[in-house]
Amino acid sequence: MFYLFFTTVFTEMALILALLFESPLRKLLILGLDKLKQGRGPLVAKSVGATVLVVLSSAVYNVVEIHKRSRESGALNPTEEVLMADLLLEASLMGFSLFLAVMMDRLHSYTKRKQILEEVINPNKQHNQ
User: 36 near 123, Cβ under 8 Å?
Assistant: First the structure.
């Protein structure tokens, strides 16, 4: 499961970098994101985001429970240490993935608005090319 989250995080970071800099890939990416935001795309994205948020809250709850047990007993056994480290890594990757998804959505929105404003301000530039 970690491989999936690492792949998701690195893909989202690459997409954000592609949105930040002017390139032909940026235009293609904006067109693709526009297509994804039509139809049932937003509904699917929200349901996947909600599912990840529920799993994230479950992982955080389990970490808190393990921490409570360790405070009561005074020590953490090796099994619980590994389980806690595993849950912390999973929760941090899920949280970072959700944050990057929101950041990518906002960046797409701002980039789209910027393109529309540039077309309105400089209509002659489009005709000359």
Answer: no
